[in-house]
Design brief:
2 copies of one chain form a homodimer. Chain A has 18 helices and 3 strands. Chain A has a two-stranded antiparallel ribbon. The first copy, chain A, is globular. The N terminus of chain A is likely disordered. Chains A and B meet through helix 6, helix 11, helix 13, helix 14 and strand 2 of A and helix 6, helix 11, helix 13, helix 14 and strand 2 of B. The complex binds potassium ion (K) (2 copies). Chains A, B: InterPro entries: Cat_transpt, TrkH.
Chain lengths: 449, 449
């Protein structure tokens, strides 16, 4: 067995961190060109780089209005960054597993095979091809469905661009839009909302799940990953829908404009979009405080690994829910589908939640000092934006366009950490490659709470 | 090696849960007596039981004003419940370690000895005697110091009762007061605030730490528990003080009434009281939103195990901070004072934080639906109260006196779970004593965030 990292010139976390930094810088510079804006002025560096970070990290928070500020060129740059960001992260998230597979012993290899159903996807190239092929297919289908809606409204050229942009943005869970106020003006168009929902959910499940589902007819079994991801996603979508029906009274706030049936679709979308799509059909200033808290929780959870969604991920939540139940019942093992989760897996999941929590609290504390909260809001105005950035959800209660410079830097850092991964970035920053000591100190326990 | 729990008639978690439930019921019934109130009316069951829960769980949240509502008899009942609650939990928290010690093998026994410095404290009786003796000594000293302040103001009898009540309440981190508005009317009395601070900090460190410190002269070493508890407590007190100086501008809001030097003492007290004393010298409606978030975080952390404080505990935070740093640096082990923490210890700490987080979010979600938030507040109005109850901190932004029936039940449940322990209560509720299976399913990993 070889020492991980020795056989590559540059370790994977470094490639990811530096690669995406370079992409953001390049995108930011392109967006600074006068031809990128409708007014043909140069955009300030901080806003160009903020937009590039938001697009590459497929978040969707913006300090300038995408529809009003950027030209067709600028919007195309954003579109390309979203696509690279979306597909890039989706692929990269499973690379460690693939690279690992070649180096590790037979038992671990079998475990990975069982967990992820990797049989023929033996090398990086074929994974890349598979992901890109399937993703483009789904996005093309989505764009075609949107075109049916957009062609009568916008004609061929504009209709096509609108369809492609929103199919890509929805599938990549990017949260960008060309309507000027997200989908708020489209609340009366359930067809559009449902197509966007389907794209968002598909993107948020990730290609490991699609592959498993496509192969199900032949194989008659789903991997642990797929089972856990689908169960958790299902529970969150249905549970979220029911809770939002309750807390928002089926969006009674919309009553004047929209019929009850259409309000039902909009309420469903309230449960879909926090999983971290970021496109919204109703401004979050009209949502109840219970709905805001629920949205914050759903954003923090996010989608499935190997997808375009952010957050701590459905599998993390699923695993920890099962683990909690087992611990409280006094069971030794967490079982799911006749398998148990390894201690290392559980430890990593918990550590991830803890680190995310600390990061969100520290960022929140800084922003409560630097930013101004409007009279009628409280702490949620800050926490919503912090978690939206870190989960790369991209929804807003209104803070982002009014951010101070420090605020913009913090939100950009959160989007980057949230997308590239806390571990990955810290590995690069701390240059964590020092060899392990040859000895270990004796273990001790301390009393806990 | 024997199977744990088989040699006792009733397992420890059950004794704790049912014992404290019985104590709360008894206290609640006594408080319902007309002679317990100043007006000689019977107090409604829900408020009597709420007060009994708050006193026994040494929280300090109250739906009726302790000074104005209860008679000397009622206040004495509360005082006794605080003392039993405080000393009871302090002792009970180490009982599992002591009972474990007799049953386990030599290696584990040596580990416990190293960790907690248990050498002569071999049995339950001597631990009880030690805790009660030392606690009463500190409280007596505290009461004497308070009497110096209270005698000139209140005379002998009333001064004595005031001294004893507030010394007990402060040491037990109970948060009850007889001034009617916590210590708000005493903001100009730095002597009082500093004596209370000393009692709060002493109570929050717990008897394992005191014992270690008392034996230090002879032994010249501190246990891992004490080192970790003292370091974390020190960092939180000093760090909290500096941050509150910053966010509250040394309580400029108080300028009219209090000199800058005295404001400094009050700012220091802002850092002391969330660790979970609950006595306050300034209403939290006057604190900045950053200060509120900081207070919420400090309450959630709380004090040290084996003490009268609540929260996830200093040792949990200390361990997880060290662990996070190690993980981010790519180290295998978490080291502190030439010891490493066991994986089980780390797992338990993380699991605790996760469970507390889930509980607080679920409770918060229910309360955002059932309770009414005043115009000028946001989500923090609910979250502050939920975490205050669950950490048994007892500070309030004003919600508790206005709680609905459902709200009161949720806050009571949080105080009980927070004090008796989520694990302990769930063990009893779920009757978790079923034997382990003879086989284990194969382990698998799932991808995480
Ligand atoms: K997004
Ligand atoms: K308290």
């Amino acid at each position: 067995m070889q020492i991980p990292g020795k056989q590559h010139r540059m370790p994977l976390p470094k490639i990811l961190t530096l690669g995406f930094l370079a992409l953001i810088l390049l995108g930011g510079l392109l967006l600074m060109l006068p031809l990128a804006t409708q007014e043909h002025h140069s955009t300030p560096f901080i806003d160009a780089i903020f937009t590039a970070t938001s697009a590459t990290c497929i978040t969707g928070l913006t300090t300038v209005n995408t529809a009003a500020h950027w030209s067709l060129f600028g919007q195309s740059v954003i579109l390309i960054m979203i696509e690279i960001g979306g597909l890039g992260f989706m692929t990269f998230s499973v690379l460690p597993f693939i690279l690992l597979k070649r180096r590790v012993d037979l038992t671990t290899r079998l475990l990975i095979k069982e967990s992820l159903n990797f049989e023929k996807l033996a090398d990086v190239n074929s994974v890349m091809k598979y992901v890109i092929g399937l993703s483009l297919a789904i996005q093309t289908l989505g764009a075609a469905l949107l075109f049916i809606d957009f062609y009568p409204r916008y004609g061929l050229a504009r209709g096509l661009f609108m369809s492609v942009f929103h199919a890509v943005s929805a599938f990549c869970n990017a949260g960008f839009d060309l309507f000027g106020n997200s989908l708020e003006s489209q609340a009366n168009d359930p067809y559009l909302i449902l197509v966007i929902s389907a794209l968002v959910i598909a993107g948020g499940l990730g290609f490991l799940v699609w592959r498993d589902l496509l192969l199900f007819k032949r194989r008659r079994r789903l991997s642990l990953h797929t089972k856990l991801a689908l169960s958790t996603t299902g529970v969150l979508l249905v549970g979220g829908f029911i809770l939002f029906l309750l807390t928002e009274d089926n969006l009674a706030v919309m009553a004047a404009q929209v019929s009850p049936g259409k309000r039902l679709v909009n309420t469903f979308f309230l449960a879909v979009t926090p999983r971290t799509a970021g496109i919204t059909t109703i401004p979050y200033s009209q949502i109840s405080i219970a709905g805001i808290l629920l949205t914050i929780v759903l954003m923090f959870i996010g989608g499935t690994p190997g997808s375009t969604a952010g957050g701590i991920k459905t599998t993390t939540l699923g695993l920890l829910t099962l683990q909690s139940w087992a611990v409280l019942r006094g069971n030794r093992d967490v079982e799911f589908g006749h398998r148990r989760f390894s201690d290392q897996n559980i430890l990593r999941a918990l550590m991830l939640v803890f680190l995310c929590l600390v990061l969100v609290i520290v960022a929140g504390l800084i922003l409560t000092i630097t930013e101004t909260i409007p009279e009628r809001y409280g702490l949620e105005y800050i926490i919503f934006e912090v978690i939206s950035a870190f989960s790369t959800a991209g929804m807003t209660m209104g803070l982002t366009p009014h951010l101070t410079i420090i605020g913009k830097l913090i939100i950009m850092l959160l989007m980057f950490l949230g997308r590239v991964g806390v571990y990955t970035v810290m590995f690069t920053v701390l240059n964590a490659s020092h060899p392990q000591k040859g000895y270990r100190y004796p273990a001790e326990n301390v009393m806990l709470g």
